[in-house]
Amino acid sequence: MQATIGDARFWDRAARKYAADPIKDMAGYERTVDRCVSYLSKDDAVLELGCGTGTTALRIAPHVRHMLATDISAEMIAIARERAAQAGCRNIELRVAPADEAVAEAGSFDAVLAFNLLHLAVDRRAVIEGAWRALKPGGLFISKTTCLAEMTSLIRLAVPVMRVIGKAPSVVAFFDGVELTKEVAAGGFEIVETARHGSGRKDPRLFVVARKPAAS
C-alpha cells in the first residue's frame, strides 16, 4: 500500500507537466484509438484504469454509452474533469481509485481499458484479475503497455537514478511482450489480437485485445 500512496504523490506532482507534454507518436496513438473504438459500440459501458488526465477517455466516450475512468492521482483526475467540462462530455464519470480496486459490481462493463499502465502497476496480476471480474462474460480487456525489457539495457540503469532524483515512480516493471501476453492469458482471457501501432522502426508498446470467455 505504501508504494501505491507514494506513486499517487509522484503523479500528483507530475500531473500538470504531464498534461502539457505533447503525445510523442501521434500517428501511432491515433492507430491505437481507432483500433480500440472498432471493438466498441454505442451500447457499451466502458471502464478505463489509469486514465491519467483523461486524453484517451475523452476520445473513447463519444463512441460508447457510458465511460468510467479512474486514476490513482487526484490531480490527474482534477485535470481530466476540467477537460471533460470544456469538451461538454456528459457520459463520462471520473473517479480517484487505484487500478486494482473494484469500482462497481462484478460483471458491470463491456470493456476495460488499460493504456500505459501495466508496467507501472504495483501488482500487475491484481489489475488483470480485477479487469476480468469487472467485465461481463464476453467482455474485452484492451491494453497498450510499454514493454521495457524490449528497450535498450541502459534503461535498467537509468530508472533507479531517475527514482532518486524524483523523475520516476517507485514501481517500474520490466517485461517483454511475450511475458505480458502470457500473463493476460493466465488471468483467464482469450487473446484476440496483439499489435504494434508505433510509427518508428521498433515499437516496445504492445497493444493487446483479450476476451473474457462468454461462459464465465
Topology of this structure?
Blueprint: H1 2-20, H2 26-38, E1 45-49, H3 55-60, E2 66-71, H4 74-87, E3 92-96, E4 109-115, H5 124-134, E5 135-146, H6 154-164, H7 177-186, E6 190-195, E7 205-211
Parallel strand pairs: 1-2, 1-4, 2-3, 4-5
Antiparallel strand pairs: 5-7, 6-7
What amount of the residues lies in strands? Answer: 15-25%
Strand order of the largest sheet: 3-2-1-4-5-7-6
Structural class: alpha/beta
Low-confidence spans: pLDDT under 50, at least 5 residues?
Answer: none
**Rounded mean pLDDT score:** 93
- Give the name of the CATH architecture: 3-Layer(aba) Sandwich
Provide the CATH topology.
Rossmann fold
Biggest sheet character? 7 strands, mixed
CATH class: Alpha Beta
- Name the shape in a single word: globular
Radius of gyration over C-alpha positions, nearest whole angstrom: 16 Å
Number of β-strand runs? 7
Q: For the terminal residues, how far apart are their CA atoms?
A: 30 Å
CATH superfamily: Vaccinia Virus protein VP39
Could you state the order of secondary-structure elements as H and E?
HHEHEHEEHEHHEE
**Total number of domains:** 1
What is the count of DSSP helices, taking H or I runs of 4+ residues? 7
